[in-house]
Design a protein that fits this description.
The chain is of the alpha+beta class. The protein has two domains: about 210 residues, Hypothetical protein, domain 2 (Endonuclease III, domain 1, Orthogonal Bundle); about 120 residues, Nucleoside Triphosphate Pyrophosphohydrolase (Alpha-Beta Complex). It is built from 15 helices and eight strands. Strands 1, 4, 5, 6 and 7 form a five-stranded mixed β-sheet that branches. It has a three-stranded antiparallel β-sheet with strand order 3-2-8. The protein is elongated, with a radius of gyration of 24 Å.
Length: about 350
């Protein structure tokens, strides 16, 4: 199939079935496209919509985002996951204000040089906001191309990825680039899905090799499986007589970077001694709660909560930016990892 036929079939389908009412499509400025593309990484559209609308309400411009604190940005991001995206979003806003007078650059290489913006995201900004002929290669496009051309090999491998980039660029139409890029994303999200693709209604089925051989489920090739390790951590949930809980802000690097979490203990051995000596806490009985499993991309985390109630020495912990006592209702306004937020909400319900 020629690139003209490929793009025309995709555009004809888009004109009839494409999504045109998503909130970031109503005002496709470089900022709105950038924000939506970052949020949509590893995240479903249905989940992103509310976060996007809330984020734009708080930070309608790049300048507003740059002026915000990282903590406030992370608080808005709570529950969306992959928090490095939010930290990079904030960093990039500051760079754009300081180096580009608040205007996102309209140059692919300059975009890629910004924190958290890769080649595909930069291509989306150039195509959707600036209507320039640049390709994208997100998960949807990888799935479409590997099936259409029956390309074997995990797309994360450099040689496979390079081949897909070459094809994505060769297939670009001469006009309607924004609609074409959106059509690719829509086709992958609605018909050419990971499981149970709706091949019979696909506009590309006639020349799709995976469809012709009835093997769409074979593409793209899955990532080679590795044993996922399990890590163990112990939370100290200290509750004061005045109804506050002790939280500490995590370092910017590592898991949950910059978010507020419960202090961690080295082990469950002699918790009372560790509380008194390392945290200067004393109080009532320490109760172990059932463990919580949280799954990341590369490992599983088993969390063992230990509640220390009726703490009487909260004043001996210096109030600082890294460790502070919070009322639960105030803590829930912070940037929190999902399991921390869930645990706080359960404490709130218990009164």
């Amino acid at each position: 199939m020629t690139k003209t036929l490929f793009s025309q079939q995709l555009l004809d389908w888009f004109d009839q079935y494409g999504r045109t009412n998503l909130p970031w499509q109503q005002q496709p400025t470089p900022y709105h496209v950038w924000l939506s593309e970052i949020m949509l990484q590893q995240t479903q559209v249905t989940t992103v919509i509310d976060y996007y609308q809330r984020f734009i309400q708080y930070y309608p411009t790049i300048e507003d985002l740059a002026k915000a604190s990282q903590g406030d940005v992370l608080a808005l991001w709570t529950g969306l996951g992959y928090y490095a995206r939010a930290r990079n979003l904030h960093k990039t806003a500051i760079v754009i204000v300081e180096q580009y007078q608040g205007m996102m650059p309209a140059d692919l290489d300059q975009l890629i040089a910004l924190p958290g913006i890769g080649r595909s995201t930069a291509g989306a900004i150039m195509a959707l906001a600036h209507h320039q002929n640049f390709a994208i290669l997100d998960g949807n496009v990888k799935r479409i191309l590997t099936r259409y051309y029956a390309i074997s090999g995990w797309p994360g491998k450099k040689e496979v990825e390079n081949k897909l980039w070459q094809l994505a660029e060769q297939l670009l139409p001469n006009d309607r680039i924004a609609d074409y890029i959106q059509a690719q994303m829509d086709l992958g999200a609605t018909l050419c899905t990971r499981s149970k693709p709706d091949c019979k209604n696909c506009p590309l089925k006639v020349d799709c090799q995976a469809y012709q051989y009835d093997i769409p489920q074979n593409y793209p090739t899955s990532k080679p499986k590795k044993n996922i390790p399990t890590r163990q951590i112990h939370w100290l949930i200290a509750q004061s007589l005045s109804g506050k809980v002790l939280l500490e802000q995590r370092p910017n690097s590592g898991i949950w970077g910059g978010l507020w979490s419960f202090p961690e203990l080295n082990s469950s051995d002699n918790i009372a001694f560790e509380c008194q000596n390392n945290f200067k806490l004393s109080g009532g009985e320490i109760t172990a709660k059932p463990h919580i499993r949280h799954v990341f991309t590369h490992f599983k985390l088993d969390i063992h909560p230990h509640i220390m109630s009726d703490v009487t020495m909260e004043d001996q912990i210096a109030e600082n930016k890294n460790r502070t006592w919070y009322k639960i209702r105030d803590a829930l306004q912070l940037g929190l990892p999902a399991p921390v937020k869930s645990f706080l909400q359960s404490l709130q319900k218990q009164g």
